[in-house]
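subagent[fold] <- orchestrator: predict structure for attached chain, return tokens only, no commentary.
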Amino acid sequence: MTEETNADKPPKLDSTLSKGLQILETLTAARGARGVSELARELELTKSNVFRLLQTLSALGYVRSTDDKQYAATLKTWQVGRAVVENFNLRELAWKEMQALSSETGEAIYLAVPEGLNVTYIDKIDSTQPIRSWNPVGGSAPIYAVGTGKAILSADYPRFREQLIGNLRKHTDLTITSISDLDREVEEIRARGYAIDRGEFRNRIRSYGGAIALPGGEVIAALGVSVPEVNLSDGDEERIGDLVRFAAENVSRKIARS
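subagent[fold] -> orchestrator:
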């Protein structure tokens, strides 16, 4: 009989920490606030245990209580996750793919991350075309109206959908302002594998986006190509869409290996 080493033994878990993280993960995935009894039932914990852990999470700023004595995750969880994403050095990981997209299209290339109901551009390569689109690094756009945003949106739609109801502001005549129309658009994006903005944020400017995700599937960013309609020829739309989808998938694979 071989002697079991420490390396062969399963790690000992801190039960209190594990239960607290279970509660936090459940609240961050929920569309709305949850009550103590509901959480206790779902996680198979005692109500007293859940209540005590919620008080600790509240004191640390990860959870807030509502007027009806329910609990919801705060943005602190998102801030911690955002710091982890930044430590990936996302710009460096995506730079080779951005250069490839620039060489293949000659158009403006963007790397964007979600910020509430917007996307913020954190890196870019300018277009080499005489007629070009332009957005500054640090600039933002509505998540439902541009290629990068729609790619992120479609990859994590349940988290965004309720917040978007009543907040679909019109920017051009082509902007999607109905949640039912957006539902259909998301289904098309998922089937196609990349997002298309058909001039929904800026007139006659099209953009194409592919989502970048963590190994667990959580979307954290998107790559995009922005193209004035006058620069497009027959077949360009599908070609550019496939290019940006492939580039975003490559970056996701790099993240998984990092």
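orchestrator: received. Logging for downstream: The domain at 88-257 is CATH 3.30.450.40 (Beta-Lactamase). The first strand starts at residue 63 and ends at 65.
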